[in-house]
Amino acid sequence: RRGCDPGAWPRAAMEASELWVGFVGAGRMAGGLVRGLLQAGKVPASNVLASAPSDKNLDAWRELGCRTTHCNLEVVHRSTLVFLATKPHILPGVLEEIRPAVGSHHIVVSLVAGVTIQTLQRLLPPWTKVLRIMPNLPCVVQAGAMVFSRGTNAGDEEAALLQSLLSSCGLCEEVPESYIDIHTGLSGSGVAYVYLFAEALAEGAVKMGMPGALASRIAAQTLLGAAKMLLETGEHPAKLRGDVCTPGGTTIYALHQLEKGALRATVMDAVEAATNRACDMAKD
Amino acid sequence: AGVLAAHKITASSPDTDLPTVSGLRKMGVNFTVSNKDTVKSSDVLFLAVKPPIIPFILEEVGPDIEARHIVVSCAAGVTISSIEKKLSTFCPTPKVIRCMTNTPVIVREGATVYATGTHADVEDGKLLEQLMASVGFCTEVEEDLIDAVTGLSGSGPAYAFTALDALADGGVKMGLPRRLAVRLGAQALLGAAKMLLESEQHPGQLKDNVCSPGGATIHALHFLESGGFRSLLINAVEASCIRTRELQHLADQEKISPAAIKKTLLDKVKLESPSLSVASASKVSLFTSKSKKN
Fold it and tell me: Where does NADPH bind (chain A) (predicted)?
């Protein structure tokens, strides 16, 4: 925040072919998004400006060709599309800081978990175009699942812009804000459930005599392959499951074990618990 | 189903007091206490006795089995080879078909499978299929699948009755009168089964179609999953199938002695072969139902 001189910066231009993108906060999630954008050629790296309190995260951004700063206000001044990617407890202070610089030309997109559009709009000028997005970790490898909702002043143009930009990071869909906590339970946290499942699969294989490293790679590839088939065939998972089950074969024996363990109900419980927790945290 | 005229059917039982007996008589079926008479007046012979009794029946009627006879056994766990072996002492090439059906044949919604024996021709199988298709679904299978069929559709109606009883309890708990609850529960299962049979869709998809987001049904399903509903059903089919195999194994060893058969039953039988103590059919199969439709 030291050495911020608003008079020193040119106003960000909103030329048709040039979009100036800013990131307030440069952590892992923001990093994932920017990688996706750059890889897909949506935005040249030189048009990206990211701010963070320390250089720890910013080194990686510079390596990508992005510009960096320690000044949040600079990001707002020099960008039209501003991603808010701070930790939840930091955000209110940051919003207070940047508020004076936010204009009606800005598009503010919050990645911050648990902070509602209502809160964002309360802490920003009334003319601000606000959108809220919930990404998930695999955005980092451009296989993310993201949902977003629009605030009062965000229109079709802003939604379409966001959708078009972020499709480079994976699946990106607009939803009512009430779905965002559910998305957290399903896919935000869901990634961890998959890691747990992959670990358990591999452990089963190790128990049966396979080396761990190989088992882990195969487990991951199995999940990847199955997910790919689901997405590409569009078939119901129950149908795909049935297709794998030869009568009296290995798969149906294994599935019986999973059913005995009430895996389905447990997974439903997990999604429910994470969703409820997201709701509760948002209220704080 | 109108497939067979009643007077062409003969049934025998030692016990003439059974309610099934009077029911058959009213339908115009010929009734006798002599198994031998039944065999003599039939071309297709359904053996509908309890599995342990089968060996004794075969001993009794074996001499009367001719080349024209098609012997159809509905006895759970009794193999074609065991029947053929027993009959081969009397007839060189007995035509044997093994079938597994279920109680809803009574309302012409049965589920029947059959496997043909060594000397049964394709036409013999087709004849049986034609008969049984008139009372529901009927298809040919390999004999080694029949135990699994027993576990699934043989015992299946019992699982359904249990489910319906419980569903009705749920309805009553939430305020419905019992009769209405039973009626609605049964209709719900009937309708769901019909949808599945008439649809190309996977049952999982049909389930999804009923579950609106955050709605009543998905909440209920979560309870079912938590209780291990699916695995219970898998367990049930497995248990029934395994038990069928156990019973078959016991039967193969012919562990049931005449002494195990109810003495009162033996008393009622007029023995045609004095050298054997035999108890005849303790129940009679219904070949056609009291059809409510034309």
Answer: 72
